[in-house]
Write a structure and sequence with these properties.
The protein has 357 residues and is of the alpha/beta class. It has helices at residues 13-24, 63-80, 105-109, 147-160, 267-280, 336-356, and strands at residues 5-9, 28-33, 86-96, 123-124, 134-145, 164-167, 188-191, 208-218, 225-228, 237-243, 250-255, 257-258, 295-306, 311-317, 320-326. It has six helices and 15 strands. Strands 3, 4, 5, 8, 9, 10, 11, 12 and 13 form a nine-stranded mixed β-sheet that branches. A six-stranded mixed β-sheet has the order 6-2-1-7-15-14, covered by helices on one side. Helix 1 (13-24) crosses helix 6 (336-356). The chain is elongated. InterPro entries: DAO (IPR023209), FAD-dep_OxRdtase (IPR006076).
């Protein structure tokens, strides 16, 4: 069935990508969101992301499939669509000496990584290519996304396909059905509310908690993207460097603090982030250390982490068919097309069943 009236809740990367794919199927899509591209708010995760393609999904999660399906589209945009604000960079991943590798980093740092045939140029680094304190590493061609360009690009593509955007605060998921631009009740609602899925009426998913991230954005140019398997300060801190396309600055990170809702900048953490980054990549600051960094701003974002992984699922709420797409934590961009394609598949199946009734 085509031409259904659909409301998508949320205008982050999940909501925009899903809305675009639904509109390409000739559905009549209205996106309702409290925050839109161009906004910066602690509740609105997508603008704060790095964002890049460093696959780290666990073997048992469908995220591996979503990441595999997403890379070709991100590569196409990077190499053929310059206005999308994505460019190709070398991704360099290092294993730190003497620090156990835990969690999702195990997949990312594997020398026989599952994604080695997904990305171009995957190889194991030689000893002389490793920074001090690193015992092994890999490199491959990856992409980095300037979210300040890419989110408006997605919005523009949606407008080109007649998606309507409306500012609005949805308190209960079923209320969204009354917010379609046609002023008629929507046939179906797609929930891309991200972190706010933990508070959205009718959903209130208690498996969703923030995974707080903090970054420093600098004007310095990086010669590639870099991350390490671990840092001495513990599992809730990280080291990553990525230079955004189109003059978007270089992102220095970071942390992964589950359950932390604080929007405040931790300046001690910021100093640790900068120190770690210039130690791994001295040329970033021209060999001058932290003093050689030219800071644009500090930022805090709350990733929508969900216990058990992201939720791509269909259900009936108050008699309304709802399809969920949320909970991607820190890999929303690099899984965005795969997740949205599966979401669209659930929407199409639901509409076919509805048409038979």
């Amino acid at each position: 069935m085509s031409g259904a009236k659909i409301v998508v809740i949320g205008a982050g990367v999940a909501g925009l990508t899903t809305a675009l794919l639904l509109a390409k199927k000739r559905h009549h899509v209205t996106v309702v969101a409290k925050h839109m591209p161009g906004d910066y708010d602690i509740e609105y995760t997508s603008p704060w992301a790095g964002a890049n393609y460093f696959p780290f999904s666990f073997p048992h999660e469908p995220a591996r499939k979503w990441e595999r399906e997403t890379f070709p589209e991100l590569w196409r945009l990077a190499t053929q669509v310059p206005e999308a604000g994505i460019h190709v960079q070398d991704g360099n991943i290092y294993v730190a000496e003497g620090i156990p590798v835990t969690g999702f980093m195990k997949e990312l740092v594997a020398e026989d990584a599952w994604f080695k045939n997904v990305v171009p140029g995957f190889r194991v680094l030689q000893k002389h290519e490793l920074p001090k304190g690193m015992v092994s590493g890999t490199t491959f061609k990856s992409v980095c996304i300037n979210t300040a360009v890419y989110l408006p690009y997605l919005l523009g593509q949606c407008l080109k396909h007649y998606v309507v955007f409306k500012r609005g605060v949805v308190k209960h998921v079923a209320d969204a059905a009354e917010m379609h631009a046609s002023e008629e009740k929507a046939d179906l609602v797609v929930n891309c509310s991200g972190l706010m899925a933990c508070k959205l009426g009718g959903v209130e998913d208690k498996k969703v908690v923030p995974a707080r991230g903090q970054v420093v954005v600098v004007r310095n140019e990086a010669p590639g993207m870099f991350t390490t398997s671990a840092v001495p300060e513990g599992d809730d801190e990280m080291m990553y460097i990525m230079m955004r396309a189109a003059g978007g600055g270089t992102i220095l990170g970071g942390c992964y603090q589950k359950g932390n809702w604080s929007p405040e900048i931790d300046h001690n953490l910021a100093n640790r982030i900068m120190k770690r980054c210039v130690e791994i990549c001295p040329e970033l600051a021209g060999g001058k250390g932290v003093e050689g960094l030219d800071i644009i701003r500090h930022g805090v974002g709350l990733r929508p982490w969900r216990e058990g992984g992201a939720r791509i699922e269909s259900e009936i709420i108050n008699g309304l068919r709802v399809v969920h797409n949320y909970g991607a934590a820190g890999w929303g961009y690099q899984a965005s097309y795969g997740m949205s394609q599966d979401t669209v598949g659930l929407v199409e199946n639901a509409l076919k069943l509805r048409a038979k009734l």
